[in-house]
Design brief:
By secondary structure, this protein is an alpha+beta fold. The chain has 4 helices and 9 strands, in the order ββααββββαββαβ. A 5-stranded antiparallel sheet has the order 1-2-3-4-5, sandwiched between helices. A 4-stranded mixed sheet has the order 8-7-6-9, covered by helices on one side. The relative contact order is 0.15.
Length: about 180
Amino acid sequence: MFRISLTITRKSESIMQLSPAILFRILFGIIGAVLLLGISLNPGTSIPVIGIILIIISFIAAFYEERWILNRDTRIIDYRFGLIFLCRKESIPFDEIDEFSYSDTAVIRRDNPEGSHSMLSRSSIFNGRSVKYSVLSLITKDGKVRNIEVLKSRSGTELLDKGTQAAGFCGYELKRS
């Protein structure tokens, strides 16, 4: 199944970035351009609504941004998300970080919608099975939890490695819970 996974990139000795691979943007940009070209090459025919919807979705995906920039020089983590031209930015000083946390215990069940990690996955909705997720989080001293990435547990070792690298880069140990 298709998933957006953050990749780690070292921009310099003091800057590490977690963001979707650039190929993600390129792929959806190409898909949107091909669909747009296909519709524009057929003038005189009615424009299919589904085609327009797919073009819009493709270009939104191409301009989607989710980026965690860890900067050891400024001792700040910048988090940006949204569309490139409409994004929200949050800065978290290293001094406000309590811990980086990795959890492989988030069990999501259809019959437990009120649990602390309660989310319904598509597979659990249709067949009632439990689904386990691995969660990499940043927890600040004031108790705010920011989930950096959430993946199904079968990708948990990949997420654990990312968490260990990110926490170590910032001078913290990754806490497993």
